[in-house]
Write a structure and sequence with these properties.
With 326 residues, this protein is of the alpha/beta class. Helix content is 45%, strand content 17%. The chain is globular, with a radius of gyration of 23 Å.
Amino acid sequence: MRTLQWVMTVTAVTGIVIAAYGVAHAQEKFPTKPIRLVVPNAAGGWPDAPARKIGQKMSESWKQAVVVENRVGGSGTLAALQVLKAAPDGYTILWSGATFVISAALQDNLPYEPFKDFIGITRTGFGAFVLVAAPALGIKTVSELIALARAQPGKVVYSSNPVGTGTHLTGARFNQLAGIKVVAVAFKGAQEAMIQLLGGRAHYAVVTLPTGLPLIKDGRLLALAVNTPQRSPVLPDVPALAETLPEFKRPEASGGLLVPAATPRTILNQISKEYARIVDLPDIREWLNNNGYVPAPTTPEEFGRILREQVDTLSKLAKDTGLKSK
């Protein structure tokens, strides 16, 4: 009888060990089927372009197809809902630009709870923006722009993209931290905002690096600073805003990879490590830098903390600047 009990005990323990090994082995094999990267922006723009570039590298490494799906609308909420409805297994990932943070900060009635329904995998990075001025304004530095605006309150005109976009919020934060009162005019699109600046009807703006770079190189715009924590390798002689305003060491909103909150931690870690490996490849890093994107991978834990900090910062900025009621 005791022998039988001993055999049964050993068999049970062996079964548990085998099952545990099976689970661990299955986790090591991730992924075993195609992965969907759901992007809340149209094809060809950002973050669609880096999603496709890096997705291709993921596909080569994992030997599984990585498919980018564009789900545009609702300021990123339609893409987020599509991911939220998927199984929490790491095979459907939200590749969000700044929209996840901006929506969480500015919208009170989202159809999901950002920090309850989702969990972050890694920060992907952030777009490089440039503070530019019309050469006719007669200033050469950020400090000179601030001094001019303070000396002539309400007379200097700031041209921006639509309210709530990344460049608009960066400009609003600059004006706030600089302590200047200007005429802020938000236009329907980047092209219209640029036309006003080039036509002399506006004095300065914040633009994406790819948009501003050709105009800076041909002398039609003057680059005063970049919003990245360090200088951009594409514009090495242009200072970072943090050199004048230290608060700009922290970007307003970062892009990232997010999945439903119940996704296993082991899968989060695997995807996070793979993303960090890929963006450290020389050809990928060079491509991202040349296209105005700064890779900044993190662990899932770090990204979760960053998301909360950025939402808090933008919420306060929105209330202080009247973008959102207090």
